[in-house]
Write a structure and sequence with these properties.
This protein is an alpha/beta fold. The chain contains five helices and seven strands.
Length: 222
Amino acid sequence: MTTDSDRPDDVRSAHAVAPSSSPSGSPRTTGSSGGGGGGTKALIGVLLAGVAGMIIFLFVNMSRDGRIHPGPTAAHAECKRGQPDCLPEVNYTDTTGAAYKREQLAGKVVLVNFWATWCHPCQSEIPALSKAYDKYKAKGVVFLGVMMDNVDSQQLLNFQSDYEMTYPVVRSNSDLMVSYNYPDALPTTFVYDRSGKQVYNRVGPLRESELDSLLGQLVAQN
């Protein structure tokens, strides 16, 4: 967890490296010079393997770049308990006392944003998050802003008023931190579709246009 002495003005970049694959070598052919048919088949096999490897490589990169890909992919299959990249089995209680239990979030689009009052990039994205929340909250979308610092209730109310923050705020706790693998940069955002599958994550502030496109696609999904 980030301490006061480590408070950054900017977030650190997150990089993901997708695995690539290449043929380990060319197959050897045997036989006389009249066995050209076997060599041709082997060459076709190598080419097909290369194409298959390229398709897998592109799929890995495109499915992990933080974008939503419409269509009947595995991301739309219902998440089962304990599967990776699913909405964690943890409950949330906001600062007004409203509870958001895992079973109550089923069938909803859920956005979980880790932030802090001292975090300048967090402050810059709050207006965009608030506008998106106001637009989509009646369409089965839940926003939860997990606050990482420990300001008192009055300080939080003043902050929410100053930044016109409209979505629910949840104070961080050990269960939340463990469930989200201790986010070490702020802001960090996770978005889950109606099946509970994580379809987007982002380190750094979100823009209003990005949120509108993202949530528009998710709300339209059955």
